[in-house]
């Protein structure tokens, strides 16, 4: 299929993202509320050694992004890894991983909406939390119904605010550690390790537990390949974004965690209670620490909610273009926006938001559990697809300008590591329900893929066709 037209004709998306949009999306795409709040759980579990868990999970994500980058640079596609799994593994794989990924981001919508609602309810208690949650979802859905350039602009400024907040946090922490903030003495990493059980107070097993927690903090990094397909030079933007993953993880995650574990004792009960960033600011005696962090987290969850709607809509749009979702989903506006995909994804997200407030709590928890291991399955699909796609591209005489390192050894290593993590999670009682629910959902979707027969408009099977672009 030809590249999308500038006017979004015939159901095509437009190349509306500017380079600065893609750059900022790639920089801040991995920054969510999990970093600002959830990192406290990993530190409380593993102590200062949590930074090892972040480094290991970050390294795994870097390798996965390198593999995805190889395929995405060679063949930019809005369906990204779902389209590549379709080509490299089989129709059932692209169908399954696409619907799983869509389901994951549809469930992120209520999670982020509820988080935003709680913050706003604390400020304005006269308004119910669910009203704020639905209002926030509706507002950010509207931003996704404009042109992709408008969405890119909204997300650009959301991302910019997150980056500024993290850089300021790291700067304050560094200044305190070097004694440049009067009246704000901190212990420093060497003292904390000496007084609170050392670098690994809970042993190596705690690092593995923290690794599982931290690994899910990075989900969303791969979405830049979806967004870049709607830019004017997708191959170049994808390669640039993929190369920047290493320093993004190093700066935003590793330096942040280093500051936190240098200031806050790992066994401080408020680390989990109020979040790692807020507790750090409190110990640095920064005025209005709670208000500052509420503002930052609100921006982070709004950004994530905004992105969730975008990512979910583009994935189900791609599935529709490959005849794996209802045909009406692929319709686009004159501006090239898949409005049916946006509205359909948002309606499911809003419905699950209401379930959290008005249905038995266990139902919402069960839905969340069903998405608990999807990120690892996505990474596994990317690795297997790249392993097989290399040969497909070679047979097409396609010259690779962006390659996975040490192929195929590192690819096989990633496949082995992800399989091992899934197996261990299944053994661990605290994670067994997540793996079991996700695998059950996966089996159901695979069976659904076998019951439908996809054909192109000409009546020929879509297997073996080149994936639909943009």
Keywords:
470 residues, mainly alpha, disordered N terminus, disordered C terminus
Structural class, by secondary structure, is mainly alpha
| Average pLDDT reading | 84
Helix count? 20
| Helix and strand run | HHHHHHHHHHHHHHHHHHHH
Spatial shape:
globular
Number of strands: 0
pLDDT < 50 runs, ≥5 residues: 1-9, 455-470
C-alpha end-to-end distance: 9 Å
Compute the CA-based radius of gyration. 22 Å
Largest sheet: none
User: What share of the residues lie within helices?
Assistant: over 70%
Strand content: under 5%
Membrane topology: Multi-pass membrane protein
Main location: membrane
GO cellular component, one term: membrane
Domain Amino acid permease/ SLC12A: 21-438
Quick take:
With 470 residues, this protein is mostly helical.
Q: How would you portray this structure in words?
A:
This protein is mainly alpha-helical and 470 residues long. 71% of the residues lie in helices and 0% in strands. The protein contains 20 helices and no strands. It has helices at residues 19-28, 33-46, 50-74, 80-88, 91-123, 129-145, 148-177, 189-195, 203-215, 224-228, 234-243, 245-263, 270-274, 276-283, 289-321, 339-358, 361-370, 374-395, 409-427, 429-451. Helix 7 (148-177) crosses helix 12 (245-263), helix 7 (148-177) runs antiparallel to helix 15 and helix 14 packs antiparallel against helix 15. The longest helix has 33 residues, at 91-123. Residues 1-9 and 455-470 have low confidence and may be disordered.
């Amino acid at each position: 299929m030809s590249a999308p037209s500038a006017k979004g004709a015939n159901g095509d998306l437009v190349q509306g993202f500017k380079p600065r949009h893609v750059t900022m999306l790639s920089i801040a795409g991995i920054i969510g509320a999990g970093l600002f709040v959830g990192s406290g759980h990993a530190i409380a579990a593993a102590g200062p050694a949590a930074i090892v868990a972040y480094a290991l999970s970050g390294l795994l994500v870097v390798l996965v992004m390198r593999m995805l980058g190889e395929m995405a640079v060679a063949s930019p596609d809005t369906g990204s890894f779902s389209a590549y799994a379709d080509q490299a593994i089989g129709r059932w794989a692209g169908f399954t991983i696409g619907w799983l990924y869509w389901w994951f981001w549809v469930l992120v919508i209520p999670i982020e909406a509820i988080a935003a609602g709680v913050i706003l309810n604390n400020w304005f208690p006269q308004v119910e939390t669910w009203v704020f949650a639905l209002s926030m979802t509706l507002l950010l859905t509207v931003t996704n119904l404009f042109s992709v350039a408008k969405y890119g602009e909204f997300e650009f400024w959301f991302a910019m605010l997150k980056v500024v907040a993290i850089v300021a946090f790291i700067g304050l922490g560094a200044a305190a550690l070097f004694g440049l903030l009067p009246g704000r003495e901190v212990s420093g990493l060497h003292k904390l390790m000496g007084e609170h059980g050392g670098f690994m107070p809970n042993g190596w097993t705690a690092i593995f537990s923290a690794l599982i927690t931290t690994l899910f903090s990075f989900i969303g990094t791969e979405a830049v390949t979806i967004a870049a397909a709607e830019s004017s030079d997708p191959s170049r933007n994808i390669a640039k974004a993929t190369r920047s993953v290493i320093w993004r993880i190093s700066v935003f995650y590793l330096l942040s965690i280093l500051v936190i574990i240098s200031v806050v004792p790992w066994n401080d009960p408020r680390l989990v209670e109020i979040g790692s960033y807020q507790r750090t600011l409190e110990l640095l005696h920064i005025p209005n620490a709670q208000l500052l962090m509420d503002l930052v987290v609100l921006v982070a969850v709004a950004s994530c909610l905004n992105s969730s709607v975008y990512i979910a809509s583009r994935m189900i749009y791609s599935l529709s273009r490959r005849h794996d979702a209802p045909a009406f989903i692929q319709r686009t506006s004159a501006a090239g926006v898949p409005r049916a995909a946006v509205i359909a994804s948002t309606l499911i997200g809003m419905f699950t938001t209401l379930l959290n407030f008005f249905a038995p709590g266990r139902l919402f928890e069960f839905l969340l559990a069903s998405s608990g291991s999807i990120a690892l399955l996505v990474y596994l699909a990317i690795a297997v697809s790249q392993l097989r796609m290399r040969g497909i591209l070679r047979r097409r005489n396609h010259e690779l300008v962006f390659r996975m390192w040490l192929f195929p050894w590192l690819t096989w290593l990633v496949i082995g590591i992800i399989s091992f993590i899934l197996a261990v999670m299944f053994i661990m009682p605290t994670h067994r329900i997540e793996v079991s629910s996700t695998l059950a959902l996966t089996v159901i979707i695979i069976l659904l893929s076998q019951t439908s027969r996809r054909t192109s408009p000409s009546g020929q099977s879509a297997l073996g066709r080149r994936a639909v672009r943009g």
